[in-house]
Design goal:
453 residues, alpha+beta, 6-stranded antiparallel beta sheet, 5-stranded antiparallel beta sheet, 23 strands, 13% helix, binds heme C
Length: 453
Amino acid sequence: MSPLFHTSGRATLAGALFLVHLSSLVSAQESAVVPLFDTTTKLEPPTTVDTAEALITRIGDRVRDRHARESKFKAYDHYLSFYWEQRSIHLEFVDKIARGGNEILVNIRSLTPLNEPNFRSFYRGLNTVAEYHENLIAAEVAPNHYSVKLAHHATERRPLEVGDQIEFEFSPFLASPKNGRSNYYGTTMLYVVGKGIVPWMGVGERQESIPLPESALLGGGTTISRQYSGEPAERFKQMAGNISPQSAQPFLLGRRLHHTNMLDGTHSEQPNPVFREQAGKLGPHYVARSCIACHVNNGRSLPPAPGEPMNNTVVKVASDETGTPHPRLGTALQPRSTSGVAEGSAHIQRYELIVGKYADGEEYELRKPVYEFVGTVPRFFSVRLTPQLVGLGLLEAIREHDVFALADPEDEDGDGISGRANIVVDSENNKRRLGRFGHKAGQPRLRQQIAGR
Ligand code: HEC
């Protein structure tokens, strides 16, 4: 045992001082920043509520073209025209079975009246992969509010019990949409009685749904179900698997903006109407016309081939190594312009090969791009490939304390990684914040990262 734990008064005092000293070191760095969110931050209502009578689960949904398992149509994960208009749904499961009762009440709320909306449950999948044992018309209980009750296990013909797995699909048939078509399907979800909605995968010949194993939940509760519709390019464009009802509509509105060309207001997916309010916002200098033009499929960008223009990467420029803006080019090279003279451009001229050997003697080859500038040549520059955009709102919500606790600047744990927390300035109010986004976590919040581009 360490002498600090002996009962001598002096030793105990020394131990106490030592502890105080250590914790004040931690808080010195931490107290230099103002948390992005605090107790005054308005939170969205909880998605799971546990009461004496019921376990309540809430989730947002959107309209879909076809069913989850139809690989031949490739028409499930993509987004349909007018997806942002009147087409998000709130689902609420009031599970009384979880608390000793005998039914689950499903409340469905829409943004516009529905016409005999369909709640299918208990996957059958014998003749087509779109068949369910039970097809219920949700009853209208109030304007834009519908409900169904689940009490029986449709395949085992007995009352529902805790642990039963109910696959369902809610089809919101719109009564009279402002624009676009009226009949849609919804997301195929798996509800586990007494637990809530879980991401699923299919097993066996019929691809019967079972919960994804814990080890596959890379995004925890936000993980999306396995894809069977043959649309790999759509994966990074999905709402979180457990999105709250309140976030579904803002997600869809934001998605529209993300896909809008800021020069003429066109949407990257057709047919969709022009977003007139956003047209004409580009320039005079720019790199790309929409977010999605760089963040292709919300995935990582590939470097362009040698000689090709670099239109989906950012070339940061500066007049010295501390990042002082270049007098003519500013902080980023903008090779295109809507009027006036363009700033010039950069491209990969060729790759330089670097050969070397690992410690065990195995040889390796690395390729280093050599850049060439046309027009003004900055002395200092840094090329940034475009990263994937997934779950960033959640990264923004991680408590500062948890990030500081993980920092290991001197690699004391010997894992070869010396992670440092970056402290940056919030340009909206000059407060010091923890850096979270962009190169070396140089930006404190999503707004600033996006506005700074
Ligand atoms: C010209 C190409 C380009 C355009 C257009 C563009 N981005 Fe980016 N984006 C990037 C690059 C490159 C980075 C990485 C920046 C860095 O490392 O400093 C990035 C980073 C981000 C990040 C931070 C990601 C992270 O993990 O830290 C977000 C969020 C983001 N962009 C959102 C947007 C949004 C929203 C738009 C449209 C308003 C947009 N971007 C337009 C190229 C672009």
